[in-house]
Amino acid sequence: MVTRGQIGSQTEMLAEGEMSTLVVDKVVEQLEGLPYELQWRVLEFTRALARSIPRGLPGRQLLRFAGAIPSNDLQIMRQAIEEGCEQVDANEW
Question: What is the domain count for the chain?
Answer without folding.
Answer: 1
